[in-house]
Specification:
heterodimer; A: alpha+beta; Rossmann fold; Elongation Factor Tu (Ef-tu), domain 3; Alpha-Beta Plaits; 5 domains; 8-stranded antiparallel β-sheet; 6-stranded mixed β-sheet; B: alpha/beta; 3-stranded antiparallel β-sheet; 17 helices; 17 strands; disordered N terminus
């Protein structure tokens, strides 16, 4: 191993909507090629992380090398690159796709094409992939293969006549999928004698081996003992091990063109490996790097704070550990007057945010508070400079701002037509601009441009509720545009609560300000003195609520035998006050702010 | 009266009798039910503990004079009158008593106890505090009392013939009790008594039967707004009968206030004997918090063995005393004399309180600080919110 002729290699990925059966199909393919015995198969081999298995989604790209004796009598090497199904991980999708020549498009034979499928399949088409449609779950009574094939042709615009009809669950027709891969996908191209060009597809931290780097060799050979150079940085590493995932890590001497495998080269942290970089031979370097990917940029930011202040160090360590394996996620320390010490964290999208938050609580046992997610605003200041704003609390004075730009997205929403009206209303409430509206059967596909800011604010939840969960939604970033945006501060007794300030379009400012004030009125318990809760744009108050003073709080009986107990109670209350945030002469329990932040999401 | 040794004021004496015929569901006091109440044993133990404590307070001449005795419980009207007489006599012998000494005994209005009222008067008791709690039959059942309304009225009539000073307790803000019903009941009560009433809002205390019933949702209490309205109504009705709210839950004709209880609220010295009794005693300028073993029989065993059932004393520093004096003194309509505050605690009011809260509370008319008289007092609005006010104010 491994000197496989190019003609016997097929590299492919699988594109599917969540729950359409991608991982189950992958398992079947692995099983059919005998890479693992029945006993070794745990369900869904590719989804390693507990969280992935539980949510039925794939977060990190995975790969497996299969050996398939085809009907033509030859044995082929099939490299399966698993791809994340969700838009937040479009970047991970793009690097997986760049390592392959073709894709299986898995569509549930009763559900049909969903919004997420579309985005990924278009990416695959852009990457010049040969697409093989696979209809899954054809054994279910609701399966309607003809309708779904028609939908694939109409919506995606690729022929679906010879789609492979399978049931990954029962194993029906799995062989036909393998044959289709061999017959319909092109073999990779490449010259084994050319200078090495290998694409850095992914990397992750293994506690025993250090950083493992997943590569796709395009030209030349990658050998054990070679000194490789990262073309973006010029840094050189000695390759200790070369191997393939079969699916267990198996060492080989070298990887030739068209092959996918891993190297282990004493690299300390994942941050030292730039996904999309080109690896070349230090002694005989390629003249040009491969076309890389666009680097991943966080588009959604929020503050993460430990509920218990003592957990701050633990949070810092946990974030560092997560970052070891997920270089797309960013964090920097910040302080909030209301919430204490924490971190401002950047994510690829809302799901990414949710996943990181969940991993922190689950794997690191941290109890966290997240501030409302914010997008990255671009501010052109009067002094001619441009600044990016990740935290509404940092927004400079309005007089220093020439103009503000906000990020827009292009969203695709697919929905049964009876809910279309509600979806269109929701989109226009959120300043959406309709780009396209088409029907396939009784399903509508609406394409909208929307400010991302309007989407991070409870859009998913609203979409889910107005369509009873029948809508699917996907988006991609679509540039920045100038907008009339204002920062709304929330004041408690005239003092701003930094964690609750937010940026909104001027037209929505008053409504949102009023709703937050009303929520806080419900959440803040009545105190000794009355409390003013206000929303303000600069010095202008746009909403106000007053929390009246408590009406009665006194013990009926207090005699000689009660003094000690009452004094000790008083001392305990003083301890409790340390966990309160002082606003003028009232103290507000942190729990009220936490509840307000929770309701916001 | 400031002596060189800091023994500046007379002493109040509290005697705890820990037994009741039955345990009331709202009560979290140190009270116990026994098939046979060991009257003689506990009478002897109380007298022995009193003598022991007197001995600890120096020679007879150095001891403070007693200005009030309060027999509380439990149900002290279940004591043998001879025990009450003996304790009063002992007090006179061991400490001496002021001429106008106030000697109060708590009594329940059951017929048995009413029959003993004359004997208690002959023993030296000169004030009766009657645990009536309600004049409504249904409420008395709910509160688990052993008497009915006619018995209560009869007991008060008997007491009136024997004692010049009578007070009784009522519990209001009961489940389902609206303002009209409470006004009617309170008017009826005020017609029965002329100089003192303790009117308590029903509160749910931890460890009581009411607490578990309340938690199970078996009954509901008025919310804070309704409770506040009932409280204000109470003060208004009492005032029309000439009774002034001189403490959160205590109403009296001027001059008829409970002097014993005023000692607690004014943060004077008091000696407490009997199971679970607390005390505050000043010795050589230092104040000590004392308390005794709560369980009746182990307390008695300790007294029989060593002369006292006391736990180790806790020495209170200036800050402790300042906190205690504020939390007691602000319950009183008369407030706190800042001069006396400095003398009793070694601290000034500004040292002991948060200046911002003090300022805000005065602005909100929760507190009044009269510079001319040197009095700091909580207004009616301030007293209604006293726990929150103290939590914010007291440093």
């Amino acid at each position: 191993m491994t000197d496989t002729p190019l003609s016997l290699i097929r590299n492919f990925s699988i594109i599917a909507h969540i729950d359409h059966g991608k991982s189950t199909l992958a398992d079947r393919l692995i099983q059919a090629c005998g890479a693992l015995t029945q006993r070794e198969m745990t369900n869904q081999v590719l989804d390693n992380m507990d969280l992935e298995r539980e949510r039925g989604i794939t977060i990190k790209a995975q790969t497996v090398r299969l050996s398939y004796p085809a009907q033509d009598g030859k044995t082929y090497v099939l490299n399966l690159m698993d791809t994340p199904g969700h838009v937040d991980f479009a970047y991970e999708v793009s690097r997986s796709l760049a390592a392959c020549e073709g894709s299986l498009l898995v569509v549930d034979a009763s559900q049909g094409v969903e919004a997420q499928t579309l985005a990924n399949v278009y990416q695959a088409i852009d990457a010049n992939h040969e697409i093989v449609p696979v209809l899954n779950k054809v054994d279910l009574p609701a399966a309607d293969c003809d309708r779904v094939k028609e939908q694939i042709e109409e919506v995606i615009g690729i022929p679906a006549d010879d789609a492979v009809e399978v049931s990954a669950k029962t194993g029906l027709n799995i062989e036909a999928v393998l044959e289709a891969l061999v017959k319909r996908l092109p073999p990779p191209k490449g010259d084994a004698s050319a200078p090495l060009q290998a694409l850095l597809v992914d990397s992750w931290y293994d506690p025993y081996l250090g950083v493992i780097t997943l590569v796709r060799v395009k030209e030349g050979r990658l050998k054990r003992g070679m000194r490789i150079r990262m073309m973006s940085t010029g840094v050189v590493h000695l390759v200790d091990q070369v191997g393939v995932f079969a699916p267990r890590m198996t060492n080989v001497d070298e990887l030739g063109p068209g092959e996918i495998g891993y190297i282990n080269a004493a690299i300390k942290t994942v941050a030292d490996t730039n996904v999309g970089d080109t690896l070349t031979d230090d002694r005989r370097p390629a003249s040009e790097p491969l076309a890389g990917f666009k680097p991943s940029i966080p588009v959604v930011w929020c503050g993460l704070y430990p509920v218990v202040a003592d957990d701050f160090e633990k949070l810092r360590d946990s974030l560092a550990k997560l970052r070891l394996n997920d270089a797309s996620f960013h964090y920097e320390a910040e302080t909030s007057a209301a919430l204490g010490f924490g971190f401002r964290c950047g994510f690829l999208g809302l799901l990414h945010l949710e996943i990181i938050q969940e991993r922190l609580s689950r794997e690191f046992d941290l109890d966290l508070i997240a501030t409302a997610p914010s997008v990255v605003y671009r501010m052109l200041l009067t002094n001619g400079t441009t600044e990016e704003l990740h935290n509404p609390a940092d927004m400079p004075d309005q007089s220093l701002i020439e103009k503000i730009e906000e990020p827009w997205i292009r969203a695709t929403i697919m929905v049964p037509d009876e809910y279309l009206g509600a979806v269109l209303t929701l989109c226009s409430e959120r300043r959406g601009m309709q780009e396209d509206l088409t029907y396939v059967g009784n399903r509508a596909m609406a394409v909208y441009r929307l400010p991302l800011n309007e989407v991070v604010f409870d859009f998913y939840d609203r979409l889910k509720s107005v369509t009873r969960g029948y809508a699917s939604f996907d988006y991609q970033m679509d540039g920045y545009e100038e907008s009339d945006l204002v920062r709304i501060s929330i004041l408690v007794n005239q003092e701003p609560v930094d964690a609750l300030s937010f940026i909104a379009h001027r037209s929505a400012a008053e409504t949102r300000g009023r709703s937050i004030c009303a929520k806080l009125k419900e959440l803040i318990p009545r105190q000794l003195f009355k409390i003013a809760v206000q929303a303000a744009i600069g010095s202008r108050i746009i909403a106000r609520e007053t929390i009246g003073a408590m009406s009665k709080d006194v013990t009926a009986k207090c005699y000689g035998g009660d003094i000690s107990r009452k004094r000790k109670l008083l001392e305990k209350q003083k301890e409790g006050k340390k966990r309160m945030r002082q606003f003028g002469k009232v103290e507000i329990p942190q729990s009220a702010f936490l509840a307000a932040l929770k309701m916001d999401q | 009266m400031d002596g060189p040794m800091g023994r500046e004021e007379p002493l109040a004496l509290y005697v705890h009798w820990p037994f009741c015929l039955s345990k009331c569901p709202y009560c979290d006091f140190n009270s116990h039910v026994r098939a046979e109440i060991p009257r003689a044993r506990f009478g002897n133990a109380l007298r022995r503990e009193l003598a022991h404590e007197a001995g600890r307070m120096g020679e007879r001449a150095e001891r403070p004079v007693v200005s009030s005795i309060f027999f509380g419980g439990g149900t002290p009207s279940l004591m043998a009158p001879e025990t009450v007489a003996g304790l009063i006599e002992d007090t006179r012998t061991l400490f001496g008593m002021t001429d106008d000494v106030e000697i109060t005994l708590e009594a329940n209005p059951t017929s048995v106890e009413t029959g003993l009222l004359r004997a208690f008067r002959d023993a030296g008791v000169n004030r009766i505090s009657m645990g009536i709690q309600s004049l409504e039959p249904e409420a008395l059942r709910f509160l688990g009392r052993e008497h009915d309304a006619p018995q209560a009225i009869a007991a008060l009539e008997t007491a009136r013939a024997l004692f010049s000073r009578i007070s009784f307790d009522l519990i209001y803000a009961r489940p389902g009790q609206d303002a009209r019903a409470w006004r009617r009941e309170l008017d009826a009560a005020l017609a029965l008594v002329s100089d003192h009433l303790s009117l308590y809002q029903l509160t749910i205390e931890p460890g009581t039967r009411f607490e578990s019933l309340f938690r199970q949702g078996r009954f509901h209490l008025p919310d804070d707004d309704d409770a506040a309205a009932l409280y204000e109504l109470t003060a208004d009705v009492a005032a029309t009968h000439g009774l002034r709210g001189y403490e959160i839950s205590n109403y009296a004709r001027p001059g008829a206030e409970s002097r014993h209880n005023l000692t607690y609220w004014r943060y004077g010295d008091y000696l407490g004997i009997g199971p679970g009794a607390h005390g505050r005693l000043t010795r050589n300028g230092a104040t000590f918090a004392t308390r005794r073993h709560r369980a009746p029989e182990p307390w008695a065993e300790r007294v029989e063995r060593t002369g006292t059932g006391a736990h180790p004393e806790e020495r209170l520093d200036n800050r402790d005393r300042a906190r205690e004096m504020l939390l007691m003194g602000l319950r009183l309509a008369e407030g706190i004399s800042t001069t006396r505050f400095r003398r009793r605690t070694g601290m000034t009011v500004p040292d002991a309180t948060d200046p911002d809260i003090l300022h805000a509370a005065i602005g909100e008319e929760y507190l009044v600080h009269d510079q001319a008289t040197g009095i700091l007092r909580a207004t009616a609005a301030g007293r209604l919110r006293l726990e929150s006010l103290l939590a914010a104010l007291v440093l």
